[in-house]
């Protein structure tokens, strides 16, 4: 029955919502990284010596973050397409009265694997961002008691 198919399709749809939320989060992070890289590109031409080296080092880290985020984006979009395909296969199975459960399960598992891979890239991007934002020990003045 179509009602059962709709119930069966709910789980993949919830995964699709989660993917959408992660894409939204990555989109905001990418926007901030791009804005910062543009600022640094403007400073790049006007700096020299140690200041220039700092700018270049940060630009390199931002480039790494952009790469990780865009790879995660790609994986999430493909995972979303797989989820949509899973739902379509479930309905096609019901309408055509053919057994496509193995196909639906396979496509769903691919989507979950892509989602997990994207989350690993997201974790890596967070690690790069955290390393980039470390406060230099000199600013902490750890030798002083406060």
Short account of what is shown:
With 146 residues, this protein is mainly α.
SS element count, helices: 4
Form type: elongated
The portion of residues assigned to helices is over 70%
Low-confidence stretches: none
Strand percentage lies at under 5%
Structural class: mainly alpha
Strand element count: 0
Features:
146 residues, mainly alpha, 4 helices, 87% helix, 0% strand, elongated
Task: Describe the fold and architecture.
- There is one protein chain.
- The chain has a domain at about 1-30 and about 70-135.
- The chain is mainly α and about 150 residues long.
- α1 packs antiparallel against α2 and α2 packs antiparallel against α3.
- It contains four helices and no strands.
- About 85% of the residues lie in helices and about 0% in strands.
- The model has no long low-confidence stretch (mean pLDDT about 95).
- The protein starts with a helix and ends in a 6-residue tail after the last helix.
Topology:
Blueprint lengths: L1 H43 L4 H48 L4 H32 L4 H4 L6
Helix pairs in contact: 1-2, 2-3
């Amino acid at each position: 029955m179509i009602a059962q198919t709709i119930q069966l399709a709910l789980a993949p749809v919830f995964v699709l919502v989660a993917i959408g939320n992660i894409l939204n989060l990555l989109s905001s992070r990418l926007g901030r990284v791009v804005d910062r890289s543009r600022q640094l590109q403007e400073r790049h031409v006007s700096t020299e010596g140690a200041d220039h080296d700092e700018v270049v080092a940060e630009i390199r880290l931002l480039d790494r973050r952009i790469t990780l985020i865009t790879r995660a984006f790609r994986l999430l979009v493909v995972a979303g397409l797989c989820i949509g395909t899973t739902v379509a296969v479930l309905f096609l199975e019901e309408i055509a009265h053919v057994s496509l459960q193995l196909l639906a399960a396979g496509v769903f598992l691919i989507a979950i694997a892509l989602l997990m891979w994207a989350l690993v890239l997201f974790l890596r991007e967070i690690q790069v961002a955290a390393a980039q934002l470390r406060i230099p020990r000199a600013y902490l003045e750890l030798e002083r008691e406060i």
